[in-house]
Design a protein that fits this description.
The protein is an alpha+beta fold. It has ten helices and five strands; from the N terminus they run H-H-H-H-H-H-H-H-E-H-E-E-E-H-E. Strands 1, 2, 3, 4 and 5 form a five-stranded antiparallel beta sheet that branches.
Length: 290
């Protein structure tokens, strides 16, 4: 202050004093602006920084990613309402006009970012502390109890078949036999619990057997089929029919039930057609799953 008073007394130095006062006021305003407003990490006057922004905005709609944040507002303010070159930075220019459309609310992005950062830091700190304390407490509480429980269960299983010193030997043997039978029965039940009853796939098939001659003995043919074609998994129906087809020609209609895994109906038809002297053809009238 003493120096300023001396400068003020000298008339030639008044202009210097006014100039220094203006610089000091501008410096205070600049400091105040830096303290209040957060500066962006991007330098809009540097080409490398602008290229970095343009590359980032080619895959993102905003500088903040999926939504705008304080960085979008700060970079737009740093551009001072001057759009970048479209030819060099097309993505950055598109972003500039997008933010220009929301320029009335861009200042709110700065406030919301600070709030969300505070909330995220609080949420991240709490669960970490809880996990550490809970895990440590559980390890301390049950560190010694778990091996004891295992040893106790093993001792109980071993003692099931041990004989008491005061117990009669005959009674002890009888007790051990009963315990063994009970354990075996329990094992069988446990083994059958997980198993399901297997469903056997079966089919109901009706065949039509046509002969060469009108006077064919279909009763004898039916008996021959029932007696000779009997593979495992095939069950013939004893009842059969001999309806008239045309011109007094008849056919033999028989039904059977087969297990799909054991019997192939094609093999059955081939065996019937092997009697070429009597059988003309064999057709499947119906084929239904049971």
């Amino acid at each position: 202050m003493f120096l300023l008073k001396r400068i003020n007394r000298n008339k030639p130095d008044r202009n210097l004093f006014n100039f220094l006062n203006k610089l000091f006021i501008l410096f205070l305003f600049y400091l105040f602006y830096i303290i209040i407003h957060k500066m962006s990490k991007y330098n809009v006057k540097d080409q490398s920084s602008l290229e970095q922004l343009n590359n980032h905005l080619t895959t993102n709609m905003w500088i903040g990613g999926q939504g705008p944040n304080a960085e979008d507002a700060l970079v737009w303010d740093a551009l001072n309402d001057e759009a970048p070159c479209v030819e060099k930075y097309p993505a950055l220019t598109a972003w500039f006009y997008l933010v220009h459309y929301f320029r009335h609310v861009k200042d709110q992005w700065k406030v919301t970012e600070t709030k969300t950062e505070n909330k995220q830091t609080k949420k991240e700190e709490k669960p970490k502390e809880q996990k550490k304390t809970n895990d440590d407490d559980l390890d301390d509480m049950f560190a010694d109890s778990k091996p004891k429980e295992k040893n106790e269960t093993k001792k109980e299983e071993d003692n099931l078949f041990e004989m008491d010193e005061e117990e009669d030997p005959e009674q002890a043997k009888a007790r051990q036999e009963r315990m063994k039978k009970a354990l075996e029965a329990k094992k069988k039940k446990d083994a059958t619990k997980g198993k399901k009853e297997q469903v056997i796939a079966k089919s109901l098939i009706i065949l039509s057997v046509k002969a060469w001659e009108e006077d064919t003995d279909f009763d004898a043919l039916a008996k021959k089929i029932l007696s000779e074609i009997t593979p495992e998994g095939l069950l013939w129906k004893t009842e059969y029919k001999t309806p008239v087809v045309a011109f007094n020609m008849k056919k033999l209609v028989m039904g059977c039930v087969v297990e799909d895994e054991k019997v192939s109906i094609d093999d059955v038809i081939e065996k019937i057609q092997a009697w070429e002297d009597v059988v003309q053809s064999v057709d499947i009238d119906s084929f239904d799953k049971i």
